[in-house]
Amino acid sequence: MTDTKSAAETKGQQVKSRLAYSFGAFGHDAFYATLSTYFIMFVTSHLFDKSSGSQGAKMIAYITLIIAALRFVELAIDPLIGNAIDNTNSRWGHFKPWILAGGTIGSIVLAILFTNMGGLNTSSPILYLIIFAILYITMDIFYSFKDVGFWSMIPAISFDSAEREKTATFARVGSNIGANLVGVVVMPIVLYFSTNANSGQGDTKGWFAFGLIIALISWISAVAVGFGTKENDSELRQNAEKTTFKDVFKVLGRNDQLMWLSLTYGIYTAGIAITNSLELYYFTYIMGNAAQYSLLATLNAIIGIFSVLAFPPLAKKFSRRKVFFLAIAVMIVALILFAISGDSLPMVLTSAVLFYIPQPLIFLVVLMVLSDSVEYGQLKFGHRDESLTLSVRPLLDKLGGAISNGIVGLTAVWAGMTAGATSGDITAHGQMIFKLMMFGIPAAMVLIGTFIFFKKVKLDEKMHAEIVDELEKTWHEHLDTDEPMAQVEAEVAAKTTTYQVPVTGTMISLADVSDANFANGTMGKGFAIKPADGGVYAPFDGVVEATFPSRHAIGLRSDNGILTLIHIGVGTVNMRGTGFVQYVEKGDHVTQGQELIEFWNPAIVKAGLDDTVMVVVSNYKDIDDFKFLKEAGNVAHGDDALQLSNPGSKA
């Protein structure tokens, strides 16, 4: 009864965490969309009235340049933010204090920024700009604390890879809805609270109400994450490496695939951010009906969910690289259609939705290649720069946002789309400038990024599988084994280790397996098992030293220095984790008999692959006495298989 109750409580906590985290993602991206897309609309169209004239235009230019400059400055602070979070130890964990602090301060400042600060924008412009800069950088820094802390929580919520994937999927759906729902409600909220409809654009009172509502939602969602999720501890999390600005660019420079992908994504994301940010301007000043923008945002919110869910089957059928190029082709066609849509609502909606559909697909392709570049760098340099590599994407998103904010603000001034202007006030010359900036420049940037990707980014699924295969051969070579071996000689000389069978099935000789690297002894000395079920268990007490993104293998080190690799199937790296669940993480201490991995034989068979499990001792040459207790026949996990004495005595 107690076990049943405990399992039910665990399941309940998982559901609670998923929902809380998803709601957190909803509020987090609603805040980001408001800041990156709609705040600049408030600045250019409503912060100053028509009477401000050229002074208002100058102030808009100053504000947008300040935003862009501060974003560039904040890029240098990001690694320090990550380092501060890593080194935070509190009763609430590493991340929650920063999520709550960032959510609270960021929300308060966002609401203030959607005001004219008591008229300072016109009565004392210099003082307004100084206060604005201080408030904006404060908000941006605390937003970054929340951003880094929030997305770093996934490994802390669960050690179960399957649960992590579910949590991440929930979060991605929540963030998609949050980012697009803001577009649905922005004009209805603005107009509802506005005293003056202002030709469907609303007034400052309505825009403040909008900013305040989004700020409250963002804060409530941060509180939900704080109270609804639970962090789990591990030895690895408590020993995180420090990150510095210099280290980030060192990784970029030496990992060529990461460098070229970063250049591709940086140019691409800046381009699409410009078009996305100017869409509301299009509805307001080209079509003359800002309220119709809600239709586009609604369609994007719905279609975006299906686009996210479509990625796995598309990538599986066509490969990620083909999905990328197909998505880019659709995006370019959409930009061309959008540019000639004029004020036709059906044409505008069709082309704008067509422009949005590929964006989640391209984002996921980039994210997968970025993740794979971790192993690429590990094989090339013998060091796994995981945290540094994964910090590149948000850094590039902010860089793209900085470029976009600057260009959007200047475009609004050049095209005459500032305070008091309506669609009837925009000249043909103004429309030409606007369309060039909204469609021409982004199209050029997307194509440049795509050309770089085509010529320089070669890291695909096949190449990654080959890299993982190579890493399996050398997984133990970069381990610092000298200290453990010395401890063995000093403390446990003459001690033997009984190595238990990790998988139930039929034991066979390694020489009989179809993988040449295992059959010829390259991978180590040991045995193989034709599995009867899908459980893999720890053969001894020790530490998880190596895990693989495809979850088809695991490397362990016993408490007295024995290194072993357990490899499930032949060619199963190409399954990319399908049919495998990993219950432990690198750095975890495990006990003999503890379940490490679960795999589903039918998935391996369906893929046309051999499910034989290879079990090897990698440092067998350093072991004084290597004795087989069983070499063939039926075995069950937990049976004694090997007796190993004095690891390290021959070193």
Structural topology:
Layout: H1 2-45, H2 53-86, H3 96-113, H4 120-123, H5 125-151, H6 154-157, H7 161-193, H8 204-228, H9 245-254, H10 256-286, H11 293-318, H12 320-339, H13 345-356, H14 358-381, H15 386-390, H16 392-414, H17 428-456, H18 461-474, H19 482-491, E1 496-500, E2 505-508, H20 516-519, E3 525-531, E4 535-537, E5 542-547, E6 553-558, E7 563-570, E8 580-582, E9 589-590, E10 595-599, H21 601-606, E11 610-617, E12 623-628, E13 633-635, E14 640-647
Helix pairs in contact: 1-3, 1-7, 1-8, 1-10, 1-16, 2-5, 2-16, 3-5, 3-8, 7-8, 7-11, 9-10, 10-14, 10-16, 10-17, 11-12, 11-13, 11-14, 12-13, 12-14, 12-17, 14-18, 16-17
Give a quick summary of the entry:
By secondary structure, the protein is of the alpha+beta class. The chain is 62% helix and 11% strand. The strands form three sheets. It has an eight-stranded antiparallel beta sheet with strand order 9-5-6-7-11-3-2-13. A three-stranded antiparallel beta sheet has the order 1-14-12. It has a three-stranded antiparallel beta sheet with strand order 4-10-8, with no helix packed on it.
Instruction: Count every beta strand, where a strand is a DSSP E run of 2 or more residues.
Output: 14
Q: Per DSSP, what share of the residues sits in E-state strands of 2 or more residues?
A: 5-15%
Give the strand order, joined by hyphens, for the main sheet: 9-5-6-7-11-3-2-13
Spans of at least 5 consecutive residues with low confidence: 1-7, 234-243, 480-494
User: How far apart lie the N and C ends?
Assistant: 52 Å
What is the share of helical residues? Answer: 55-70%
Spatial shape: elongated
CA gyration radius, whole angstroms: 28 Å
Mean pLDDT: 83
**SS summary, helix count:** 21
Structural class based on helices, strands and sheet pairing: alpha+beta
Largest sheet: 8 strands, antiparallel
